[in-house]
Protein backbone atom coordinates (compact mmCIF):
# COMPACT_ATOMS: atom_id res chain seq x y z
CA UNK A 1 0.00 0.00 0.00
CA UNK A 2 0.93 3.66 -0.33
CA UNK A 3 0.56 5.85 2.76
CA UNK A 4 0.60 9.62 2.36
CA UNK A 5 0.69 12.03 5.28
CA UNK A 6 -0.21 15.55 4.23
CA UNK A 7 0.95 18.18 6.73
CA UNK A 8 0.52 21.92 6.73
CA UNK A 9 3.99 22.45 5.26
CA UNK A 10 5.10 19.16 3.70
CA UNK A 11 3.92 15.89 2.28
CA UNK A 12 5.41 12.58 3.41
CA UNK A 13 4.76 9.41 1.47
CA UNK A 14 5.80 5.80 1.86
CA UNK A 15 5.38 2.50 0.10
CA UNK A 16 4.57 -0.33 2.52
CA UNK A 17 4.75 -4.09 2.16
CA UNK A 18 1.60 -5.96 3.20
CA UNK A 19 3.42 -6.67 6.50
CA UNK A 20 3.89 -2.95 7.13
CA UNK A 21 7.58 -2.67 6.27
CA UNK A 22 8.56 0.60 4.65
CA UNK A 23 9.95 -0.20 1.19
CA UNK A 24 10.38 3.34 -0.06
CA UNK A 25 9.88 6.79 1.37
CA UNK A 26 9.70 10.33 -0.01
CA UNK A 27 9.07 13.84 1.29
CA UNK A 28 8.15 17.01 -0.55
CA UNK A 29 7.68 20.55 0.80
CA UNK A 30 4.35 22.16 -0.10
CA UNK A 31 6.13 25.45 -0.71
CA UNK A 32 3.66 28.07 -1.87
CA UNK A 33 1.25 25.53 -3.36
CA UNK A 34 -2.45 26.04 -2.70
CA UNK A 35 -5.77 24.51 -3.73
CA UNK A 36 -5.51 22.13 -6.71
CA UNK A 37 -1.70 22.44 -6.78
CA UNK A 38 -1.57 20.52 -3.52
CA UNK A 39 -3.93 17.92 -4.96
CA UNK A 40 -1.69 17.62 -8.01
CA UNK A 41 1.36 17.12 -5.79
CA UNK A 42 -0.36 14.24 -3.99
CA UNK A 43 -1.34 12.57 -7.29
CA UNK A 44 2.15 13.07 -8.72
CA UNK A 45 3.83 11.67 -5.57
CA UNK A 46 1.57 8.62 -5.52
CA UNK A 47 2.12 8.07 -9.25
CA UNK A 48 5.91 8.11 -8.87
CA UNK A 49 5.65 5.55 -6.04
CA UNK A 50 3.45 3.39 -8.30
CA UNK A 51 6.08 3.58 -11.03
CA UNK A 52 9.06 2.91 -8.78
CA UNK A 53 7.25 0.06 -7.05
CA UNK A 54 7.29 -1.96 -10.29
CA UNK A 55 6.67 -5.53 -9.20
CA UNK A 56 5.31 -4.74 -5.72
CA UNK A 57 1.56 -5.03 -5.86
CA UNK A 58 -0.14 -1.83 -4.68
CA UNK A 59 -3.74 -2.44 -3.81
CA UNK A 60 -4.51 0.63 -1.73
CA UNK A 61 -3.66 4.30 -1.19
CA UNK A 62 -4.36 6.00 2.12
CA UNK A 63 -4.04 9.74 2.62
CA UNK A 64 -4.06 11.46 6.03
CA UNK A 65 -5.10 15.11 5.89
CA UNK A 66 -4.49 17.88 8.46
CA UNK A 67 -8.06 18.86 9.21
CA UNK A 68 -11.52 17.46 8.73
CA UNK A 69 -12.40 14.77 6.20
CA UNK A 70 -16.08 14.86 5.29
CA UNK A 71 -16.63 11.19 4.53
CA UNK A 72 -20.11 11.75 3.09
CA UNK A 73 -18.90 14.18 0.43
CA UNK A 74 -15.29 12.97 0.10
CA UNK A 75 -14.00 16.48 0.70
CA UNK A 76 -11.35 17.99 2.97
CA UNK A 77 -11.28 21.10 5.14
CA UNK A 78 -7.67 21.90 6.00
CA UNK A 79 -7.21 25.26 7.75
CA UNK A 80 -3.48 25.46 6.97
CA UNK A 81 -3.77 24.79 3.23
CA UNK A 82 -5.05 27.74 1.21
CA UNK A 83 -8.08 26.88 -0.88
CA UNK A 84 -8.87 23.65 0.96
CA UNK A 85 -12.18 24.62 2.50
CA UNK A 86 -14.08 21.78 0.87
CA UNK A 87 -11.50 20.21 -1.41
CA UNK A 88 -12.73 17.15 -3.40
CA UNK A 89 -9.67 15.01 -2.72
CA UNK A 90 -11.39 11.62 -2.82
CA UNK A 91 -12.78 12.23 -6.32
CA UNK A 92 -9.40 13.45 -7.56
CA UNK A 93 -7.56 10.39 -6.23
CA UNK A 94 -10.27 7.99 -7.36
CA UNK A 95 -10.10 9.44 -10.91
CA UNK A 96 -6.34 8.94 -10.95
CA UNK A 97 -5.98 5.57 -9.17
CA UNK A 98 -9.46 4.13 -8.53
CA UNK A 99 -9.10 1.67 -11.41
CA UNK A 100 -6.13 -0.05 -9.83
CA UNK A 101 -6.21 0.58 -6.05
CA UNK A 102 -8.57 1.19 -3.17
CA UNK A 103 -8.40 4.89 -2.21
CA UNK A 104 -8.99 6.07 1.35
CA UNK A 105 -8.80 9.50 2.90
CA UNK A 106 -8.89 10.15 6.65
CA UNK A 107 -8.22 12.98 9.07
CA UNK A 108 -4.75 12.83 10.57
CA UNK A 109 -6.28 11.95 13.96
CA UNK A 110 -8.05 8.95 12.47
CA UNK A 111 -4.91 7.95 10.56
CA UNK A 112 -2.79 8.13 13.72
CA UNK A 113 -4.97 5.75 15.69
CA UNK A 114 -5.34 3.40 12.70
CA UNK A 115 -1.54 3.48 12.24
CA UNK A 116 -1.01 2.64 15.91
CA UNK A 117 -3.59 -0.13 15.65
CA UNK A 118 -1.94 -1.58 12.54
CA UNK A 119 1.75 -1.34 13.40
CA UNK A 120 2.25 0.57 16.66
CA UNK A 121 1.54 0.58 20.38
CA UNK A 122 -2.15 -0.30 19.95
CA UNK A 123 -1.59 -3.34 17.72
CA UNK A 124 -4.69 -5.52 17.67
CA UNK A 125 -6.68 -3.27 20.03
CA UNK A 126 -10.36 -2.63 19.35
CA UNK A 127 -10.74 0.21 21.88
CA UNK A 128 -7.85 2.65 21.74
CA UNK A 129 -7.23 6.39 21.92
CA UNK A 130 -4.41 8.39 20.35
CA UNK A 131 -3.77 11.75 22.04
CA UNK A 132 -1.74 13.98 19.71
CA UNK A 133 -0.06 16.88 21.51
CA UNK A 134 1.80 19.25 19.22
CA UNK A 135 0.93 22.67 17.84
CA UNK A 136 -2.64 21.69 18.62
CA UNK A 137 -4.21 18.87 20.60
CA UNK A 138 -6.51 16.28 19.05
CA UNK A 139 -7.46 12.65 19.55
CA UNK A 140 -8.11 9.65 17.34
CA UNK A 141 -10.72 7.34 18.84
CA UNK A 142 -11.11 3.66 18.05
CA UNK A 143 -14.30 2.24 19.56
CA UNK A 144 -15.11 -1.43 19.04
CA UNK A 145 -12.70 -1.56 16.10
CA UNK A 146 -14.08 1.47 14.28
CA UNK A 147 -12.84 5.05 14.10
CA UNK A 148 -15.24 7.52 15.71
CA UNK A 149 -16.01 10.27 13.18
CA UNK A 150 -18.86 12.10 14.86
CA UNK A 151 -21.94 13.61 13.27
CA UNK A 152 -19.98 16.42 11.55
CA UNK A 153 -16.72 14.45 11.15
CA UNK A 154 -15.00 16.49 13.90
CA UNK A 155 -14.96 14.00 16.78
CA UNK A 156 -11.76 13.95 18.86
CA UNK A 157 -11.48 17.72 19.29
CA UNK A 158 -10.10 17.25 22.78
CA UNK A 159 -8.15 20.51 22.69
CA UNK A 160 -11.53 21.89 23.81
CA UNK A 161 -11.81 19.74 26.94
CA UNK A 162 -12.96 21.79 29.93
CA UNK A 163 -10.56 20.85 32.72
CA UNK A 164 -10.39 23.82 35.07
CA UNK A 165 -12.58 26.71 36.09
CA UNK A 166 -13.18 29.53 35.52
CA UNK A 167 -13.69 29.69 31.76
CA UNK A 168 -11.34 32.35 30.36
CA UNK A 169 -11.88 34.43 27.22
CA UNK A 170 -8.52 33.24 25.86
CA UNK A 171 -9.96 29.70 25.56
CA UNK A 172 -12.30 30.89 22.84
CA UNK A 173 -9.95 30.31 19.92
CA UNK A 174 -8.45 26.95 20.85
CA UNK A 175 -10.10 25.44 23.93
CA UNK A 176 -9.04 25.18 27.57
CA UNK A 177 -6.87 22.03 27.34
CA UNK A 178 -5.02 23.16 24.22
CA UNK A 179 -4.53 26.67 25.60
CA UNK A 180 -2.56 25.29 28.55
CA UNK A 181 -1.06 21.98 27.46
CA UNK A 182 -0.20 22.01 23.72
CA UNK A 183 3.34 22.94 22.61
CA UNK A 184 2.44 26.65 22.31
CA UNK A 185 0.39 26.16 25.51
CA UNK A 186 3.54 25.33 27.49
CA UNK A 187 4.99 28.61 26.25
CA UNK A 188 1.82 30.52 27.19
CA UNK A 189 1.90 29.07 30.72
CA UNK A 190 5.62 29.89 30.99
CA UNK A 191 4.95 33.51 29.94
CA UNK A 192 2.14 33.84 32.49
CA UNK A 193 4.47 32.50 35.20
CA UNK A 194 7.25 34.87 34.11
CA UNK A 195 4.88 37.75 34.76
CA UNK A 196 4.81 36.86 38.45
CA UNK A 197 7.89 36.77 40.66
CA UNK A 198 6.98 33.38 42.10
CA UNK A 199 9.57 31.18 40.40
CA UNK A 200 13.23 31.71 39.68
CA UNK A 201 14.20 30.89 36.11
CA UNK A 202 16.96 31.11 33.53
CA UNK A 203 14.11 31.99 31.14
CA UNK A 204 13.81 35.43 32.80
CA UNK A 205 16.78 36.59 30.70
CA UNK A 206 14.92 35.65 27.50
CA UNK A 207 12.53 37.66 25.37
CA UNK A 208 9.18 36.04 26.25
CA UNK A 209 8.01 36.61 22.67
CA UNK A 210 10.62 34.27 21.17
CA UNK A 211 10.27 31.52 23.79
CA UNK A 212 9.54 28.01 22.46
CA UNK A 213 8.45 24.71 24.01
CA UNK A 214 11.96 23.42 23.29
CA UNK A 215 13.34 26.23 25.48
CA UNK A 216 11.07 25.14 28.33
CA UNK A 217 12.24 21.51 28.07
CA UNK A 218 15.89 22.64 27.81
CA UNK A 219 15.51 24.77 30.96
CA UNK A 220 13.83 21.84 32.73
CA UNK A 221 16.85 19.66 31.97
CA UNK A 222 18.98 22.22 33.83
CA UNK A 223 16.74 21.99 36.90
CA UNK A 224 14.91 25.27 36.25
CA UNK A 225 12.24 26.02 38.85
CA UNK A 226 9.80 27.79 36.53
CA UNK A 227 10.14 25.24 33.73
CA UNK A 228 9.46 22.54 36.29
CA UNK A 229 6.25 24.30 37.38
CA UNK A 230 5.15 24.64 33.73
CA UNK A 231 5.63 20.92 33.11
CA UNK A 232 3.97 19.96 36.42
CA UNK A 233 0.92 21.92 35.29
CA UNK A 234 0.89 20.22 31.89
CA UNK A 235 1.30 16.76 33.43
CA UNK A 236 -1.71 17.43 35.66
CA UNK A 237 -3.81 18.44 32.62
CA UNK A 238 -2.59 15.58 30.38
CA UNK A 239 -3.53 13.24 33.24
CA UNK A 240 -6.98 14.78 33.68
CA UNK A 241 -7.72 14.61 29.95
CA UNK A 242 -6.56 11.00 29.74
CA UNK A 243 -8.62 10.18 32.86
CA UNK A 244 -11.72 11.66 31.25
CA UNK A 245 -11.31 9.51 28.17
CA UNK A 246 -10.69 6.43 30.32
CA UNK A 247 -13.87 7.03 32.35
CA UNK A 248 -15.98 7.85 29.31
CA UNK A 249 -14.79 5.25 26.80
CA UNK A 250 -13.14 2.49 28.88
CA UNK A 251 -10.37 1.82 26.31
CA UNK A 252 -7.58 -0.78 26.36
CA UNK A 253 -4.86 1.76 25.69
CA UNK A 254 -4.13 5.48 25.57
CA UNK A 255 -1.26 6.36 23.21
CA UNK A 256 0.44 9.75 23.52
CA UNK A 257 2.05 11.16 20.41
CA UNK A 258 2.68 14.36 18.48
CA UNK A 259 5.66 16.67 18.68
CA UNK A 260 5.51 17.16 22.46
CA UNK A 261 5.79 13.33 23.00
CA UNK A 262 8.77 13.65 22.05
CA UNK A 263 10.34 15.33 25.02
CA UNK A 264 7.38 14.68 27.33
CA UNK A 265 7.52 10.90 26.76
CA UNK A 266 9.60 10.49 29.91
CA UNK A 267 6.66 11.74 32.02
CA UNK A 268 4.33 8.90 31.05
CA UNK A 269 4.40 7.37 34.56
CA UNK A 270 3.60 10.70 36.20
CA UNK A 271 0.73 11.28 33.75
CA UNK A 272 -0.58 7.83 34.63
CA UNK A 273 -0.37 8.66 38.35
CA UNK A 274 -2.35 11.88 37.78
CA UNK A 275 -4.97 10.07 35.72
CA UNK A 276 -5.36 7.43 38.43
CA UNK A 277 -6.39 10.13 40.91
CA UNK A 278 -9.40 11.08 38.78
CA UNK A 279 -10.55 8.18 36.60
CA UNK A 280 -13.12 5.43 37.10
CA UNK A 281 -11.07 2.80 38.99
CA UNK A 282 -12.17 -0.34 37.12
CA UNK A 283 -11.35 1.22 33.75
CA UNK A 284 -8.17 2.81 35.07
CA UNK A 285 -6.97 -0.52 36.43
CA UNK A 286 -7.15 -2.27 33.07
CA UNK A 287 -6.06 0.49 30.66
CA UNK A 288 -2.45 0.82 29.47
CA UNK A 289 -0.70 4.13 28.80
CA UNK A 290 1.95 4.22 26.08
CA UNK A 291 3.93 6.61 23.93
CA UNK A 292 3.57 6.36 20.16
CA UNK A 293 6.03 3.89 18.63
CA UNK A 294 5.63 5.36 15.20
CA UNK A 295 6.45 9.01 15.82
CA UNK A 296 6.07 10.95 12.60
CA UNK A 297 5.31 7.74 10.72
CA UNK A 298 1.94 7.08 12.36
CA UNK A 299 -0.01 8.81 9.59
CA UNK B 1 -41.77 -6.85 23.21
CA UNK B 2 -41.36 -6.94 26.96
CA UNK B 3 -39.18 -4.28 28.56
CA UNK B 4 -37.99 -4.76 32.11
CA UNK B 5 -36.18 -2.08 34.10
CA UNK B 6 -34.50 -3.51 37.18
CA UNK B 7 -33.67 -0.85 39.76
CA UNK B 8 -31.94 -1.13 43.10
CA UNK B 9 -35.27 -1.27 44.96
CA UNK B 10 -37.95 -2.21 42.43
CA UNK B 11 -38.61 -3.86 39.12
CA UNK B 12 -40.71 -2.14 36.44
CA UNK B 13 -41.96 -4.08 33.46
CA UNK B 14 -44.04 -3.21 30.43
CA UNK B 15 -45.46 -4.89 27.38
CA UNK B 16 -44.94 -2.83 24.22
CA UNK B 17 -46.58 -2.96 20.82
CA UNK B 18 -44.16 -3.06 17.87
CA UNK B 19 -44.84 0.69 17.51
CA UNK B 20 -43.70 1.30 21.07
CA UNK B 21 -47.09 1.85 22.71
CA UNK B 22 -47.32 0.57 26.26
CA UNK B 23 -50.01 -2.12 26.35
CA UNK B 24 -49.55 -3.24 29.93
CA UNK B 25 -47.37 -2.23 32.83
CA UNK B 26 -46.44 -3.68 36.19
CA UNK B 27 -44.16 -2.83 39.11
CA UNK B 28 -42.86 -4.99 41.94
CA UNK B 29 -40.70 -4.02 44.93
CA UNK B 30 -37.56 -6.13 45.36
CA UNK B 31 -38.11 -6.16 49.11
CA UNK B 32 -35.44 -8.23 50.82
CA UNK B 33 -34.79 -10.39 47.76
CA UNK B 34 -31.18 -11.14 46.87
CA UNK B 35 -29.22 -13.26 44.39
CA UNK B 36 -31.35 -15.85 42.54
CA UNK B 37 -34.55 -14.55 44.18
CA UNK B 38 -34.22 -11.39 42.10
CA UNK B 39 -33.61 -13.51 38.99
CA UNK B 40 -36.72 -15.53 39.81
CA UNK B 41 -38.78 -12.34 40.20
CA UNK B 42 -37.70 -11.19 36.73
CA UNK B 43 -38.61 -14.54 35.16
CA UNK B 44 -41.94 -14.64 37.00
CA UNK B 45 -42.79 -11.06 35.96
CA UNK B 46 -41.93 -11.72 32.32
CA UNK B 47 -43.93 -14.97 32.38
CA UNK B 48 -47.04 -13.24 33.72
CA UNK B 49 -46.75 -10.61 30.94
CA UNK B 50 -46.42 -13.43 28.39
CA UNK B 51 -49.59 -15.02 29.76
CA UNK B 52 -51.59 -11.82 29.97
CA UNK B 53 -50.46 -10.77 26.51
CA UNK B 54 -52.41 -13.68 24.98
CA UNK B 55 -52.77 -12.75 21.33
CA UNK B 56 -50.07 -10.06 21.23
CA UNK B 57 -46.98 -11.55 19.64
CA UNK B 58 -43.95 -11.20 21.91
CA UNK B 59 -40.75 -11.66 19.99
CA UNK B 60 -38.25 -10.12 22.38
CA UNK B 61 -37.47 -9.43 26.03
CA UNK B 62 -35.09 -6.64 27.04
CA UNK B 63 -33.84 -6.20 30.58
CA UNK B 64 -32.01 -3.07 31.83
CA UNK B 65 -29.84 -3.71 34.88
CA UNK B 66 -28.47 -1.19 37.41
CA UNK B 67 -24.76 -1.81 37.01
CA UNK B 68 -22.44 -3.46 34.53
CA UNK B 69 -23.55 -6.04 31.97
CA UNK B 70 -20.64 -8.21 30.86
CA UNK B 71 -21.76 -9.00 27.34
CA UNK B 72 -19.04 -11.61 26.78
CA UNK B 73 -20.15 -13.74 29.74
CA UNK B 74 -23.81 -12.72 29.89
CA UNK B 75 -23.44 -11.80 33.56
CA UNK B 76 -24.41 -8.78 35.66
CA UNK B 77 -22.59 -6.85 38.37
CA UNK B 78 -25.13 -4.78 40.31
CA UNK B 79 -23.70 -3.09 43.40
CA UNK B 80 -27.12 -2.48 44.96
CA UNK B 81 -28.43 -6.04 44.64
CA UNK B 82 -26.95 -8.49 47.13
CA UNK B 83 -25.37 -11.52 45.48
CA UNK B 84 -25.21 -9.95 42.01
CA UNK B 85 -21.45 -9.76 41.61
CA UNK B 86 -21.42 -11.85 38.46
CA UNK B 87 -25.01 -13.00 38.12
CA UNK B 88 -25.74 -15.19 35.06
CA UNK B 89 -28.93 -13.38 34.05
CA UNK B 90 -28.70 -13.99 30.30
CA UNK B 91 -28.50 -17.77 30.75
CA UNK B 92 -31.43 -17.75 33.20
CA UNK B 93 -33.64 -15.74 30.86
CA UNK B 94 -32.57 -17.70 27.78
CA UNK B 95 -33.43 -20.97 29.56
CA UNK B 96 -36.88 -19.63 30.40
CA UNK B 97 -37.78 -17.75 27.22
CA UNK B 98 -35.09 -18.35 24.59
CA UNK B 99 -37.30 -20.83 22.72
CA UNK B 100 -39.93 -18.21 22.01
CA UNK B 101 -38.31 -14.74 22.17
CA UNK B 102 -35.04 -12.94 21.62
CA UNK B 103 -33.51 -12.12 25.02
CA UNK B 104 -31.33 -9.03 25.56
CA UNK B 105 -29.71 -7.64 28.67
CA UNK B 106 -28.09 -4.20 28.86
CA UNK B 107 -26.81 -1.80 31.48
CA UNK B 108 -29.34 0.86 32.41
CA UNK B 109 -27.16 3.50 30.72
CA UNK B 110 -27.22 1.57 27.45
CA UNK B 111 -30.96 0.96 27.80
CA UNK B 112 -31.62 4.67 28.42
CA UNK B 113 -29.91 5.81 25.23
CA UNK B 114 -31.49 2.98 23.21
CA UNK B 115 -34.89 3.91 24.64
CA UNK B 116 -34.38 7.56 23.70
CA UNK B 117 -33.25 6.49 20.24
CA UNK B 118 -36.27 4.24 19.76
CA UNK B 119 -39.06 6.37 21.19
CA UNK B 120 -37.69 9.50 22.81
CA UNK B 121 -35.78 12.71 22.24
CA UNK B 122 -33.04 11.03 20.16
CA UNK B 123 -35.40 9.28 17.74
CA UNK B 124 -33.54 8.21 14.62
CA UNK B 125 -30.17 9.58 15.80
CA UNK B 126 -26.99 7.60 15.16
CA UNK B 127 -24.75 9.72 17.45
CA UNK B 128 -26.42 10.54 20.75
CA UNK B 129 -25.56 10.78 24.43
CA UNK B 130 -27.83 10.26 27.43
CA UNK B 131 -26.60 11.93 30.63
CA UNK B 132 -28.35 10.40 33.63
CA UNK B 133 -28.15 12.58 36.75
CA UNK B 134 -29.71 11.02 39.82
CA UNK B 135 -28.21 9.28 42.85
CA UNK B 136 -25.19 8.78 40.62
CA UNK B 137 -24.16 10.16 37.24
CA UNK B 138 -23.63 8.00 34.17
CA UNK B 139 -23.94 8.26 30.41
CA UNK B 140 -25.23 6.07 27.62
CA UNK B 141 -23.28 6.63 24.41
CA UNK B 142 -24.53 5.88 20.91
CA UNK B 143 -21.76 6.20 18.33
CA UNK B 144 -22.55 5.57 14.68
CA UNK B 145 -25.71 3.70 15.68
CA UNK B 146 -24.06 1.38 18.19
CA UNK B 147 -23.91 1.51 21.98
CA UNK B 148 -20.38 2.08 23.30
CA UNK B 149 -19.61 -0.66 25.84
CA UNK B 150 -15.89 -0.20 26.39
CA UNK B 151 -13.24 -2.83 26.89
CA UNK B 152 -14.53 -3.84 30.34
CA UNK B 153 -18.20 -2.98 29.69
CA UNK B 154 -17.99 0.13 31.91
CA UNK B 155 -17.91 2.94 29.32
CA UNK B 156 -19.99 6.01 30.19
CA UNK B 157 -18.72 6.37 33.78
CA UNK B 158 -18.86 10.15 33.50
CA UNK B 159 -19.42 10.63 37.21
CA UNK B 160 -15.62 10.42 37.23
CA UNK B 161 -15.04 13.31 34.81
CA UNK B 162 -12.27 15.62 36.04
CA UNK B 163 -13.72 19.12 35.74
CA UNK B 164 -11.99 21.25 38.34
CA UNK B 165 -8.71 21.31 40.15
CA UNK B 166 -7.38 20.47 42.64
CA UNK B 167 -8.18 16.77 42.97
CA UNK B 168 -9.74 16.21 46.41
CA UNK B 169 -9.63 13.01 48.48
CA UNK B 170 -13.43 12.99 48.64
CA UNK B 171 -13.58 12.33 44.88
CA UNK B 172 -12.06 8.90 45.42
CA UNK B 173 -15.31 7.04 46.00
CA UNK B 174 -17.50 8.58 43.29
CA UNK B 175 -15.54 10.92 41.00
CA UNK B 176 -15.29 14.71 40.78
CA UNK B 177 -18.37 15.37 38.63
CA UNK B 178 -20.66 13.08 40.63
CA UNK B 179 -19.33 14.41 43.95
CA UNK B 180 -20.53 17.92 43.05
CA UNK B 181 -23.38 17.56 40.59
CA UNK B 182 -25.43 14.39 41.28
CA UNK B 183 -28.55 14.58 43.48
CA UNK B 184 -26.53 13.83 46.64
CA UNK B 185 -23.82 16.11 45.17
CA UNK B 186 -26.15 19.12 45.30
CA UNK B 187 -26.67 18.37 48.99
CA UNK B 188 -22.90 18.03 49.56
CA UNK B 189 -22.27 21.40 47.91
CA UNK B 190 -25.11 22.95 49.94
CA UNK B 191 -23.60 21.60 53.18
CA UNK B 192 -20.16 22.96 52.28
CA UNK B 193 -21.72 26.38 51.57
CA UNK B 194 -23.64 26.25 54.86
CA UNK B 195 -20.33 25.92 56.67
CA UNK B 196 -19.32 29.37 55.44
CA UNK B 197 -21.26 32.54 56.20
CA UNK B 198 -21.18 33.69 52.59
CA UNK B 199 -24.81 33.10 51.59
CA UNK B 200 -28.05 33.72 53.46
CA UNK B 201 -30.42 30.77 53.38
CA UNK B 202 -33.61 29.33 54.78
CA UNK B 203 -31.67 26.07 54.86
CA UNK B 204 -29.62 27.37 57.81
CA UNK B 205 -32.49 26.44 60.10
CA UNK B 206 -32.31 22.83 58.90
CA UNK B 207 -30.25 19.91 60.15
CA UNK B 208 -27.64 19.59 57.37
CA UNK B 209 -27.65 15.81 57.84
CA UNK B 210 -31.27 15.44 56.71
CA UNK B 211 -31.06 17.85 53.77
CA UNK B 212 -32.15 16.48 50.36
CA UNK B 213 -31.84 17.65 46.76
CA UNK B 214 -35.60 18.29 46.85
CA UNK B 215 -35.03 20.73 49.74
CA UNK B 216 -32.46 22.60 47.66
CA UNK B 217 -34.86 22.93 44.72
CA UNK B 218 -37.71 23.95 47.06
CA UNK B 219 -35.52 26.67 48.60
CA UNK B 220 -34.51 27.82 45.13
CA UNK B 221 -38.17 28.27 44.22
CA UNK B 222 -38.45 30.67 47.17
CA UNK B 223 -35.52 32.75 45.88
CA UNK B 224 -33.00 31.36 48.37
CA UNK B 225 -29.50 32.80 47.88
CA UNK B 226 -27.56 29.70 48.92
CA UNK B 227 -29.75 27.31 46.93
CA UNK B 228 -29.23 29.57 43.93
CA UNK B 229 -25.44 29.36 44.35
CA UNK B 230 -25.63 25.55 44.63
CA UNK B 231 -27.61 25.29 41.40
CA UNK B 232 -25.35 27.81 39.60
CA UNK B 233 -22.40 25.59 40.48
CA UNK B 234 -24.16 22.47 39.21
CA UNK B 235 -25.22 24.18 35.97
CA UNK B 236 -21.60 25.15 35.34
CA UNK B 237 -20.48 21.54 35.84
CA UNK B 238 -23.33 20.00 33.81
CA UNK B 239 -22.38 22.43 31.04
CA UNK B 240 -18.68 21.52 31.22
CA UNK B 241 -19.39 17.79 31.17
CA UNK B 242 -21.76 18.15 28.22
CA UNK B 243 -19.19 20.34 26.44
CA UNK B 244 -16.52 17.68 26.90
CA UNK B 245 -18.73 15.04 25.33
CA UNK B 246 -19.63 17.38 22.48
CA UNK B 247 -15.94 18.11 21.73
CA UNK B 248 -14.88 14.48 22.05
CA UNK B 249 -17.72 12.67 20.27
CA UNK B 250 -19.42 15.30 18.07
CA UNK B 251 -22.96 13.94 18.67
CA UNK B 252 -26.30 15.08 17.21
CA UNK B 253 -27.98 15.33 20.58
CA UNK B 254 -27.32 15.34 24.31
CA UNK B 255 -30.29 14.13 26.35
CA UNK B 256 -30.43 14.91 30.07
CA UNK B 257 -32.42 12.53 32.25
CA UNK B 258 -32.49 10.82 35.62
CA UNK B 259 -34.17 11.98 38.82
CA UNK B 260 -32.54 15.44 38.86
CA UNK B 261 -33.97 16.19 35.34
CA UNK B 262 -36.83 16.38 36.74
CA UNK B 263 -36.50 19.66 38.58
CA UNK B 264 -33.36 20.77 36.72
CA UNK B 265 -35.03 20.42 33.31
CA UNK B 266 -35.89 24.13 33.36
CA UNK B 267 -32.16 24.99 33.30
CA UNK B 268 -31.50 23.35 29.94
CA UNK B 269 -30.89 26.71 28.20
CA UNK B 270 -28.43 27.82 30.87
CA UNK B 271 -26.59 24.50 30.64
CA UNK B 272 -26.39 24.97 26.87
CA UNK B 273 -24.97 28.48 27.37
CA UNK B 274 -22.31 27.13 29.75
CA UNK B 275 -21.39 24.32 27.33
CA UNK B 276 -21.06 26.81 24.48
CA UNK B 277 -18.34 28.66 26.39
CA UNK B 278 -16.14 25.55 26.43
CA UNK B 279 -16.94 23.22 23.54
CA UNK B 280 -15.51 22.87 20.03
CA UNK B 281 -17.59 25.46 18.11
CA UNK B 282 -18.42 23.44 14.98
CA UNK B 283 -19.74 20.54 17.06
CA UNK B 284 -21.47 22.86 19.51
CA UNK B 285 -23.23 24.68 16.69
CA UNK B 286 -24.87 21.55 15.32
CA UNK B 287 -25.65 19.60 18.51
CA UNK B 288 -29.08 19.75 20.17
CA UNK B 289 -29.64 19.64 23.94
CA UNK B 290 -32.85 18.05 25.19
CA UNK B 291 -34.46 16.66 28.32
CA UNK B 292 -35.56 13.02 28.33
CA UNK B 293 -39.10 12.57 27.02
CA UNK B 294 -39.41 9.16 28.59
CA UNK B 295 -38.61 9.94 32.22
CA UNK B 296 -38.70 6.74 34.23
CA UNK B 297 -39.85 4.82 31.16
CA UNK B 298 -36.59 5.14 29.20
CA UNK B 299 -35.23 1.81 30.42
Uncertain regions spanning at least 5 consecutive residues of chain A: none
Number-wise, the strands of chain A total 12
* Rg of chain A: 20 Å
Helix content of chain A: 25-40%
Strand content of chain A: 15-25%
Order of helices and strands of chain A: EEEHEEEHEHEEEHHHHEHHE
- Strand sequence of the main sheet of chain A, in spatial order? 3-2-1-4-7
Instruction: Quickly count the helices of chain A.
Output: 9
List the helices and strands and how they pair.
The structure is a homodimer of 299-residue chains.
Chain A: E1 2-6, E2 10-16, E3 22-29, H1 36-53, E4 60-65, E5 68-70, E6 75-77, H2 89-97, E7 102-107, H3 108-119, E8 128-133, E9 137-143, E10 146-147, H4 176-181, H5 183-195, H6 213-221, H7 225-249, E11 253-257, H8 268-278, H9 281-286, E12 288-291
Parallel strand pairs in A: 1-4, 4-7, 8-11, 11-12
Antiparallel strand pairs in A: 1-2, 2-3, 5-6, 8-9, 9-10
Helix pairs in contact in A: 1-2, 5-7, 6-7, 7-8
Short note summarizing the structure:
The structure is a homodimer of 299-residue chains. Chain A is an alpha/beta fold and 299 residues long.
Amino acid sequence: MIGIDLGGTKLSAALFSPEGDVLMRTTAPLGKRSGPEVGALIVETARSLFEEAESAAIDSIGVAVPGIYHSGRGTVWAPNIAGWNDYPLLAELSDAFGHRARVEVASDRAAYILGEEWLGAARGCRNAIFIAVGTGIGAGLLVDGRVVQGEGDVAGAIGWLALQRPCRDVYESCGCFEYHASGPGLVRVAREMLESAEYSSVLRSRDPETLTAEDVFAALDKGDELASAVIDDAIALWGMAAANMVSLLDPEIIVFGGGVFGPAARFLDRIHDEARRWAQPISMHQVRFAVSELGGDAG
